Amino acid sequence: MLLTSSYTPRELLRLHGELPFELTERLVDTFDAAEAIKASLTYIEEASYGFAEEGFVEGINIRLASLAKTLRGRNKAELLSIIEHLQQIEVDTVRSGEHGKENLDKFIKIVDSLE
Cα(94)–Cα(88) distance, rounded to whole angstroms? Predict the structure, then answer.
């Protein structure tokens, strides 16, 4: 059988009606790997629901804002600064989670297309 690296396995099969043993083994290994990836899809889908959603620190911020109303001077200013930092942490965490979820969703679509 004439083998050249310019042919894909599919082209070789169409041209010669068979594939070299080494190539067949690689294709079987690739198939096994794809099956393992598909089997892990449930875990990936579950992970995509584990990201923090907007408002996840809202309850504590409300309590801290109420506490800030009872304070004066430096203590009040410090607590308001802490509240602002918590709000920024929430924004950053949600944004990061959205990015992670988008990437997991892309991965899920790729795996679904293997079938």
Answer: 10
The Cα 80–Cα 67 span in angstroms is 10
The answer to whether 57 and 83 have CB atoms below 8 angstroms apart is: no
- φ, ψ of residue 71 to 5 degrees: the values are -100, 165
CA dist 51 and 44 (Å) reads 12
Q: Pick from 111, 4, 2, 114: which is nearest to 48 by CA?
A: 111
Rounded to 10 degrees, what is the CA torsion of 12, 109, 45, 28?
Answer: 0
Among left, alpha and beta (phi > 0; psi -120 to 50; other), residue 51 is beta
The yes-or-no verdict on residue 45 having pLDDT over 70 is yes
CB-facing half-sphere around the CA of 80: CA atoms within 13 A: 10
Measured CA to CA, the distance from residue 20 to residue 25 in angstroms comes to 9
Residue 43 structure tokens: 């875990």
Tens of pLDDT, residue by residue over 11-22, are: 988 998 899 899
